[in-house]
Amino acid sequence: MQLTEKQKGVVRGAGMAMVITLITLIGVLFWQPDFLTPSNTMAGRLSFALKADLFVVLLLVISIGRLARHRFHEPADIDGGGMSVGTARAKSLQAILQNTLEQTVLAITLHILWAVIAPVSWLAAIPVAVGLFVIGRLLFFSGYESGAPARAVGFGLTFYPNVLLLIILALIALRIVG
């Protein structure tokens, strides 16, 4: 199958995001910085993850706010998506919000699972994953309307850390690592 130019752009962006994800997350697992390691109690672990995830939730709030602000200021969209056809901008902001909600649910779920299951010395992966999430969402927001290649790095930096954490958690559960 011959890839289109857009598909090639997505592959480049996604590939870049994958490399960044692997370097940063695997790097922090080997580095194991003490200053990013919580107390080894369940409360300490969960508190650590939830505090980091405040930034994930903040991006969801920003996404909701962007759509709400647009709807308030745009007469054609003020009644909401269920009551109007919606302008192109409203549809774009709604799609960004939907994707951000999906990514937020996945990230917070995996961060909590990671906090509970992973060795305490590996919990530094959570703030690193959150950092990638924040950078990824901001890139996704800014590139969304320019098309798939423009948002691919942002999507990848949001999604791939979660996939990597999930794979490692599965390996821990199977007692292959950790």
TrEMBL record:
Q: Which SUPFAM superfamilies match?
A: MAPEG domain-like
GO process terms (BP): regulated exocytosis
Residues spanning the membrane? 9-31, 43-62, 112-139, 159-177
Q: Which subcellular locations apply to this protein?
A: Membrane
Q: Which Gene3D superfamilies match?
A: Membrane associated eicosanoid/glutathione metabolism-like domain
Primary residence: membrane
Q: Which domain of life is it from?
A: Bacteria
Q: What is this protein called?
A: MAPEG family protein
Q: Which InterPro entries does the entry mention?
A: MAPEG-like_dom_sf, Membr-assoc_MAPEG
Write the record's keywords in alphabetical order, separated by commas.
Membrane, Transmembrane, Transmembrane helix
Q: GO CC terms for this protein?
A: lysosomal membrane
